[in-house]
Amino acid sequence: MQDIVTRALSLKRPSLLVEAAQSVGSDYPHGRLLRRLVGTEISTRPVRALVCLLDQETELEARRRTGDAGYSPRKHIEVLVAIIGEARGLYALRQIT
Q1: Average pLDDT value for residue range 49-65
Q2: Which of 13, 1, 31, 32 is nearest to 80 (CA)?
């Protein structure tokens, strides 16, 4: 089974979604966005937060693919921004240790 960082960094999504998420770049509003997406308790635990974000993204991707009327491209991009930011942070920590 892939580790969580590898799973996050290997997502294959439409380029428009990925480019929109990556355009945020280093301006990732870590605390505020993460707390809103996963809650205060989980946001203090990077691995748990990333797992929660990946679960949300899987659901959003399924909704996008089926044309669900409740699908929100904005939320999908926010979740991808958070995934990229959290995965990069965990990857950097892994490189230090």
Answers
A1: 94
A2: 13
Residue 8 in domain: no
The domain of 32 spans 22-96
- What is the pLDDT, as a whole number, of residue 39? 87
Q: Token pair of 19, please?
A: 């480019």
Whether residue 37 contacts residue 77, with contact meaning beta carbons closer than 8 Å, is answered with no
- Look at residue 56 in the predicted model and tell me its pLDDT: 96
CA 2 – CA 17 distance, rounded (Å): 23
Reduced to 3 states (helix: H, G, I; strand: E, B; else coil), residue 29 is coil
What does the alpha-carbon distance between residue 78 and residue 76 come to, in Å, rounded to a whole number? Answer: 5
Please give the tally of structural domains in the chain.
1
Residue 68's Cβ-side half-sphere holds a number of Cα atoms within 13 Å equal to: 12
